[in-house]
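=== RUN LOG ===
request id: a7f3
mode: sequence -> structure
chains: 1
length: 768
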Amino acid sequence: MPIITLSPDGTLALPEEIRDSLSLRPGDLLSVEAVDGSLRISLHTPKEKAEKPMIRKPQDLQHPAELATPIRVIKGVGPRLSDILSKKGMCTVEDALYVLPHRYEDRRELQRIAALRPGSSAAFFASVESAQEMTTKGGRRYFEAIVKDETGSLTLKWFHFHPAFMKKNWLPGRRGIFIGEVSQFGYQREMHHPEVEWAGEGEELAEVMARDPENFGRILPVYPLTEGVTQKVMRKVMRQVVRDYARFVPDLLPAEIVERQALLPLPRALKESHDPDPATARLAELNEGRGAAHRSLAFDEFFFLQLGLALKKRGIALEEGISFQVTHRYTKELTKLLPFSLTGAQRRVLTEIKEDMMTPHPMHRLVQGDVGCGKTLVALMAALIAVENDYQVAIMAPTELLAEQHYLNIRGYCDTLGVTTALLTGSIKGKSDTLGKIASGETQIVVGTHAVIQEKVEFRRLGLGVIDEQHRFGVVQRALLKRKGINPDILVMTATPIPRTLSMTVFGDLSLSVIDELPPGRTPIETKVARESRRKQVYGVVREEVSQGRQAYIIYPLVEETEKSDLKAAVQMAEELSTKIFPDLRVGVLHGRMAAAEKEAVMKAFKAGESDILVATTVIEVGIDVPNVTVMVVEHAERFGLSQLHQLRGRVGRGSARSRCILMTGDRVSEDSLRRLEVMEQSNDGFVIAEADLEIRGPGDFFGTRQAGIPELKVADLLRDAGVLEEARTEAFALVEDDPHFRAPGHDTLRRELIRRWGGRLELASIA
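=== RESULT ===
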């Protein structure tokens, strides 16, 4: 039974469970009176509060002002700690509530020494057997203590210590609880710089644990830390925040969704995430994020994300756009010019695009497909439909080289068809003439970089915008391109396969088409990882391919070497390869710092077979098509992301001859790096590789999702919570379908919360 004690200053000390049950707030008063030999405790409000009740506006009732309480108000958070936490994004108590533990430790019962396993954190009760200052063979001083319990002994070590303090405290026979990470060195288990909670004279383990309920007798949350904050301090702060403020978090999801999805109320979900019930919680479930509390928080976050995306998609569908007519004036002629037939996947996606373009609403479609599947041709077909209707087309690429490649690829066909084209990049001279022809409508298809969306570029009648490699651009660039016309259709393309979870978030407002078929005649690319020690054999493979009339790429991560880097660089290595390794072969070099005309000349020469080996940086990652190249060597392959390696690899295997990609690494490469590269050896499927890349790098790095214009996820994890994401998306899209204007009872609060979370990024009149 909870015991109420009287503090030395005459105040009552209430157990936590009583404080929680009374829902005490700062400033609340308790009165105590004796009734029939027992104490009666009553909660009441001070008189001045009763006279001046706090009246909240409706929006405050939805999002209580208490959640905006600065973190510095929390007891024990001084100016220094407040600054540290603020830099971590914890400025208010609401921020803190959503900084969840990244793992949990079971401190309901302490472990025995014999059961301790290397690599895990542990807490155990033991006594000091011996303690003394030691010296390594190299002369380094350290302090060592041997502690034991009835099952065995463990060595504790400190490499940073105060000798007098250690000798005074680490006395043989002294007992305590020791906490830290167990390591294995040879046959010996050790714990370095452990925390310790000493037992008093004659004090038993249960009494020591009861003295510190923050850290013992419970499942302990382990928080992500920043320098200057210990777990002990963080736990104390977070426990106060959860105890005093979690109850103010509003539950806004419709009751029928809560019931259907079996969700917990948000205040309870937050409390159980920070302070799991020791009687019912399962450690493995908590650490894997599979508990009901985590699922409820993730669902709430995903729901409002998907609600916004559903509205964006619906808003686009309701806008008045261009209803194109498919006349086949140019598209039919183009198919006659092609030396091959379209694949089934290309025809299917082209049909989806045509159907979108024929509706009176703007198309917003994402076309994704693996390297070499023929997306550019599909985009050209869509462009010609717009031109057939007397509209202009803008095709935007992330780099000058890719823009130039697109321009060169389509210009020949367009010239034959009588369609005028222009290239617009930052380095092109004499732009005024080009800009004049775009403004007059004389130029029908414009291919370029960010230069296309500059303010001075005006279109007479822009009807279609095509964005290639969408992940290189942000949502702002997409919007700017759209504003160059009057609600033009937008076609987004990417050769980087997008994992399903990302396509439902970053591109959740776009319709999706997938070209999942490669043109006939393509042979699978053989991929091998080679260590530095096999360099001669690798160069032998390059020479063998060239001797058979083929060509090769050798890719480097840098343009030029620097003093700070030990990586090989393209310019220096091109010189070495041409003079020392392959003096009898023709070696070209290509990198992003070259002028556009220079790059075009190098590529033309290589494509024409005037050079045997092209040394390049990742500037050739996309858009380069030389079917005669049958081998690629990627230097320092461990420095690249898997999706980037897959893009690079796609530059070979574009003809019918057997092709190889060799991933060079140093002899001292981590096991993790090798495991990543093994994914490349085992699969040519871009979607398999993209999923692996997402898992390794995390969603934040994969596409730079911060520029995607969507709310940042605080709790939900795209990988772990993929199933929750799908459920939340289904519910959110169904709600918008049934009640697009949020007029149903209770939906007005959803609308306000949606606007708050998206922070003005929706730009939709339908929810204003």
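=== NOTES ===
The CA atoms of residues 39 and 102 lie 43 Å apart.
The first helix runs from residue 16 to 22.
=== END ===
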